Structure formats: structure tokens, C-alpha cells
Amino acid sequence: MNTAIFHSVPRRRQAGFTMMEIAISLAIIGIALVAIVGVLPYGLHAQRDNREETIIGQDASVLLDAIRSGAHGMDDLTNYVISITNIQSYYPGGNQAPTTNFYGFSYSTVTRNGAIDGTLTELVLTNGANIVGILSWPEFTDKTNFSPIPNLQNGNYLIQNGGYLNHIVAYFHSLSGPAAEKAPQDNPILRGDSFGYRVICVNAPAAIPADGAAHGYNNQVGYNQRELRLTFTWPLLPNGSIGSAPNGSVTVRTTIAGQVMPDLNFFPWHYFCRPQFFTNAP
Fold first, then answer.
1. Element at 255 (helix H, strand E)
2. pTM of the model
3. In the chain, what are the domain boundaries?
4. 181 pLDDT exceeds 60?
5. Spatial contact of 255 and 226, defined as CB atoms under 8 Å apart
6. Are 53 and 245 in contact (CB under 8 A)?
7. Minimum mean pLDDT range among 36-45, 80-89, 267-276
8. What CA–CA distance (Å, rounded) separates 205 from 149?
9. What is the mean pLDDT of residues 169-184?
């Protein structure tokens, strides 16, 4: 009887990683992940900054057009404006020291130096005309008739002869951005955490030197041209202040041809730009 003899087939050597190789690989992967995680916040910050700058650019265009055209019917602004303040300094003229009053306008009240002023209740920010009319306040107004002071006498403003210096500051929730933050959203948490900014509004005379002629060209331009500057600073914190290290600040400006005229119904608290009105008298 023949017995079959089976020859064992030599096994192929199995390749693998040693524990040392695995440890080195994990270390390399860990270092790469740390680098990626370290760069991620910069990317998120850049995305946030780009989004905020885009919102500011869109809102700036809306506000510039509203003030420049003297808009009355933009009542939708009441959903976004938080408050407007006017730090108004009165210069009696000569060497007399100026005095300053602080006016605050909100949706429900008007305050003067921190106390509610019952004589100005019609100026609460419940309509677009009040908002635009206050934002359009000229930087310099005459002390006798509150008319806007144009560019006068060799490029020097005649505030030293007596008048008012108006410093207009407004606080807004963003007009553009996520729809979840916009009206009719009334959740105070969402509204408080929405993107906001501060706007410094300057409705200044055109910086054009006066000429010698009573009705000279420079005088005409000085009386019929103004510069509107809006300086945006963000973000607006929930407590109403701007962060100590704001993310951004930008100034937009435009030139307005025509007159800035007070609204006689709310004299001297409302002013509107009238591009269609010009004067020939310097």
C-alpha cells in the first residue's frame, strides 16, 4: 500500500506595520490636524468679515439714497433703527463758551440730557420721515433761524459768529442679512444677537473757498452743494456699545446738489435734502 506524501507549500511572508511605524504615522496625522484646526478660525473670521462688509455696503447704499433724495415714505426703516442721538453744541458767538445738549430719539421717547422731553413727542422714530429728517440734520446751523450754514467767507465756517454744531450718531440693526433676523421677528434674543452697527452722519457744507463777487461761481456752488459722509463702525454689541477692537470701520460719501431745507411742520428738527431746489442769492 502506497502512502501519499504531501509536501507543505511554503507560506508567503505577510507584510505589515510595526507598532513604531503606526505611532509615527499617528504623530504625523496629529500634527497635520493641529495645523488645520489652527488655520480654521482665520478662515471663519475672514468669512465673517466679508459677510459684514457686504452688509455694510448694501445698507450704506440704501441710507445714502434715502438722505440724498430727502425720502419721506421709507417707513420700513423703523424696523431697523434702534436710536439716534444729536450732541448739539450751541455757540453764542464771540469769546463766549459753548453749551451742549444731548438729544436722544428712539421708537418710544425723545430725551434731552437724559430726561424725557414731552415737547418733542412727535419726533419719536415711528415713521421714515422722522428718521431721515433727523439723519439729514446739517452739521452747522445758524443761531437765529436754524438755517444750514453753507461754505462762507474764505472757506471758514461762520460758527464763531454764533450757531449750532450738530453731531448725529445713529444705531441700526442691519437692513440686509439673514431673513430670520428681520421683521416681523420679535424674539428679543434673535434681535439682540443680530448684526448691528453705528453710523455717524455728517451733512457738511462743500469745502469751496468763497470768491469776491457777490454772485460769483464759488459762492453759488457753496450755497448749492453739500457733502454727505456716513461713517460705519461695527459690530454693535448687545449692550449698545461698539467693541473696544471693532471688526471694521468705513466711510462712504456723496455730493448733494441743491438745498437742505427744514420741514416747517417740525421746525427746526426736520431737515431734508432737496436736489431740485437751488438759490441764486449767496
1. strand 248-257
2. 0.81
3. 43-274
4. yes
5. yes
6. no
7. 36-45
8. 7
9. 89
Cite the DSSP H helix spans in 116-216.
Answer: 128-135, 188-193
Instruction: List all residues 6 or more positions away from 127 whose beta carbon is below 8 Å from its beta carbon.
Output: 75, 78
One-letter amino acid at 21 equals E
- Tell me which H or E stretch contains 202: strand 196-205
Question: φ, ψ for residue 55 (rounded to 5)?
Answer: -65, -45
pLDDT in tens, 120-169: 889 999 999 999 999 999 998 888 778 887 655 444 555 667 889 899 99
Full DSSP string of 263-276: -GGGTTT-EEEETT
Flag whether pLDDT at 48 surpasses 60: yes
Distance CA(274)–CA(272), nearest Å, equals 6
Q: Beta-carbon neighbour count of residue 85 at 10 Å? A: 17
Which residues are CB-contacts of 99 (< 8 A; sequence separation ≥ 6)?
A: 89, 90
pLDDT at position 153 is: 47
Confidence of residue 219 (pLDDT cuts 50, 70, 90): confident
| DSSP H/E element including 221 | helix 217-223
Minimal CA–CA distance to 64: which of 272, 236, 252, 276? 252
| Mean pLDDT in residue range 201-219 | 74
The confidence score (pLDDT) of residue 125 equals 95
C-alpha closest to that of 164 among 182, 141, 147, 186: 141
* Contact (Cβ atoms closer than 8 angstroms) between residue 236 and residue 200: no
The bridge status of strand 248-257 relative to strand 196-205 is unpaired
Q: What's the residue count for the chain?
A: 282
Q: Which residue in the block uniquely carries the three cell numbers 449767496? A: 282
Beta bridge partners of 197: 172
Separation in Å, CA 223 to CA 60, 149, 216 = 26, 9, 11
d(CA 21, CA 7): 36
Grid coordinates given for 75: 417707513
To which residue does cell 445714502 refer? 64
